[in-house]
Structure formats: C-alpha cells, structure tokens
Amino acid sequence: MEPIFLGGFVGGLKALGINLPSLLAQLINFTILLVVLSVFAYKPAMRLLDERRRRIQEGLEAAEQAKQQAAQAGVEVQAQLERARQEGQAVIGQAQQIAARIQEEAHQQARQDAEALLTRARSEIQLERDSAIADLRREFAGLTIEAAEKVIGQSLDRQAHRRLIEEVLAESTLGGNGDQKAPRSEPSS
Amino acid sequence: MRGHRRWLIIVGVLVLVVVGFVFLRGPTPDIRIKPETLYSVGMVNITNTLVTSWVVVALMITLVFLASRRWELVPRGVQNVLEFIIESFYNLVVGIVGEKNGRRFFPVVATMFFFIVFANWFSLFPIFNVIGLGEEAEEGVVMQKVDIGPLPVTYVGLSSLSQMKGRTIDAEDPEAAQKVEEEKEKGNVVGEIRPFLRGINTDLNMPLGLAIMSAIFVEFWGISTLGLSTYGSKFFNFGGLLQGMRKLSVGQIFRGGVDAFVGFLELASETVRLVSFTFRLFGNMFAGEVVILMFTFLIPLVFTLPFYGLELFVGLIQAFIFALLTLVFGMMAVSHGSHPDAEEVEAETHHTQTTEDRPVNPEQ
To answer: Which residue of A161, B166, B249, B271 has the fewest CB atoms within a 10 Å radius of its CB?
Structure first.
C-alpha cells in the first residue's frame, strides 16, 4: 500500500516537472544571490543607514546643545546688562553726591569769606571811627581853648589850659559819655 | 473639437485591434506545466527556467555591483535608488518584527522579495516564450529560423492574411502534410518550440525551492533563538502526557494528549505551509503567463495591455506575500512561548514611538 502511494506521489511530482537536479540548481541559485546581495548590498546599505542615522542623531544633539548654549549666553548677556546698568546708576549717584558736597563746600567757603570780609571791614570801620573821634577830640580841645581865650580876653598859659581841658575830656571819655556826645556834637559843629 | 478627438482615438484603437487580429496573431499557445529542456548534460537537463534563473541572478548581481562599486554616505544615481528600495523594505521589516529580529531576518526576506519580484517582472518581456530552439514535427507551430552565432535560433512566425487563425498546423487537418511541405519549401520550420526563457516561477521547482529555503530559515531562526529542546517541544509536546501517566491522573493525561495533538498539528501545518507557499506562487505566475499567452493569441494589440498591468501588480504582490509570510512565520517561530521576547518587542515599539514623539514636543 505504502510503496504504491509513494510511487504515485513521486509520479505526480514528475508529472508536475519537479525533479531533484532542477530543485537543487534553483536552491543554489537562490543561495548565491542571497550571499552576494547580503555581502554587497545589504551589509553596506545597513552600515550606511546606521552611519547616517548616527550622524543625524549627533546633528540633532549638537543643535540642541547649541540652542541651550545660545539661551545661556542670552541670559548671561542680560545679567551683564543689568549689572552694568546698576553700576552706571551707582556711579551717577556718587557723582551727584560729590557734586552736592562740592556745592555745599563752595557755599560754606563763600559764606566764610564774606563773614571774614565783613568782620575785617567792621574792625577797620571801628579803627577809622576811633581815630576820627580822637582827631575830633583833639581839634575840639584846641577850639575850646581858643574860644575860652576869646571869652576871657586874656591869654592864659596855653600849656596849663590844655592840660586842664585834657583832664576834663579824659574824665568825660572814661565815663563813656564822650562817645555818645561826640557823634551828636559832630553834625552840630 | 474635443468630441472629434475622442472619436479619432476610438477609431484608432479599433483599427489597432483589427490589425492585430488579422496580422499579428500568435500561434495557438502550447501550454505545459513542465519546463522545456533545452540541452541535456549527462543526467542533468538544463531547462529554460533554469537558464532564466541564471540570467535573473546574473542581472541582479550585475545591478548590485554597478550600484555598490562605491558606497557613499551621500548617495547618487543608481546607488540612491537601490538604497531607497533597500531602506524602505528594511523599515517595513523592522516595523513588523522589531529592530533585533528585523536585522536577522532582513537579508533572507529581502532576497526573496527582490528575487521574486525581479524574476516576475523580467518574465513580462516579450522575448519570453517565443524565441527558442525549434523541433521539427509533422504538426505544430510554424516558425522562422535564424542563426545567431553558434546558436540556432527559431522564433514564432506571425499570422498572415491567408491564414487568419494564426500559423498553426493541426494534426486533424486533412491537408496537414501538404501544408507542412509548403512551409518547408518557404524555409520555415514546423514543429514545437522550446523557448530559451520562461518565467522561473512557472516551473514548480523554483517556488518549491524558495518554499524550502523559507522553511529552512524559519526553523533555523526558531532553533537558534529558543534552543533545540524548547523549539522542538513546540512539535513534540509529550511532557504533559508522560507526567499524567506517571501520576495516573485522567485529567492530566487528557490535557497532555491534547497538547501532544496540538504539537502534531503544528508539525503538519509546517509541511502544509511548504505546499501552500509553493502552489500560491506557482499558480499565480503560471496563470498569469497563460492569460498573457492566450490574449496574445486572441487579440494581440490593445487588449493585452491591461493584463500586462495586472501581471505587474500580481508579480509584486506575490513577491510581497511570499517574503512577508516568511517574515511572519519567522517571527512566530522566534517568539513561541517566550514572553520576554514579546515584551521586548513591545518595549522596542514603545521606545520608537517615544523617540518619534520627541521632536514634536519642543514645537508644542
């Protein structure tokens, strides 16, 4: 039973044109093609593909890095600008302070100068007045003696008189009234 | 004006059909399943499908060498096309079985695909089936003879006005002998033709060989991944049965028996797969050849064209089916009963998804 079945099977294969040499030949053909394609087409293509993929990956990473760096640089620039502005602000403030101080000092100096000038002027005026008063007193004494001579009609001892008057005047001056009397007497004379 | 042009086209097509029908009809197609033997070297018959197979392999290797003389990172010309094709198919394979398995399966699956599709499309060239060695007989096709170098080449003659049915001399024709004499006087040959080229997949040996290759690689992948014992237990699963017998538990014996039977079914399906692989490819390609031959015989011009288009499509689809089925069976063989692998594939696909998502995120 079995050999007949097997024989029928082989006969059927033969009728379909299947035979071992052809089959083997086609298998060998396919194997050759497989080997050649693997070595000369797929392997280099795969290598290239991987290489390209790797490069693209690297490129993307580099771009990402560059972007981050740029962002960082931007932040830094911003910070530096901020710092520079603050510094500028501080410098301006300082300058303003210095200017105010200088102004203040100049004011002070001017006031002091003016005061000094005023005091000197005052003391000079005082001196002038004192000397003027002394002159006036001297003249007034002379005048008084002359007047007295005329009134008495006789010439007294000039020396004695002068001494007398001087004494009187000195008494009046020492009393402090002479000063007040003198200006009042000046415009009348 | 436009209607005028349309009429012109219709008339032109009709004229072409009629001219083809009258002058260009081929002889009655001689359809055989067996490939024709061209020469016999000792015990080995060199058939025309074998010759075609050599031609196809040689052409493909030449093409690859032309393209790959210098692989460059920035592709140019033929290399670009070849690389694009390889890359597309590689991405397809990786998309189905994942990166790790894809690398392993790719060369075999891709070679199957490219070989089958190239051979199928190549066999649509009109040099197929009509040029070959003539064999004189008392009846048959009328052929014309030429000598190209050492090769005595014969080609199929065309029909003429006097014989609208194509130049075939029938044995049943009472005037057959007379007609043969007439043709011989004209210097033609009457008899059978053994074409030099015939589509390789119209010979059962090629699809069978490819199916055997497919089976060998599927088993190889399975065994090399899972180990012989694990992979073998898929088919010879008697562990449960033996354990049940030792424990004398009827339920376990039954379950073990079912497992063993499933294993037997798996084994049977491997064999059936071989047959289905073979006959799917053979049937499609053989039928395609017959259809084209028949239409060349019936209406040579215009109406044959749609069938050429169809055959282009069928040739591609069959190659695709063959390669992808091998891929899927390989995947099944590799992933049988091992959950870590499946998880790995899942993780891999998930990983690729996340990497694909990544470039989108910064834009959002």
So the answer is: B271
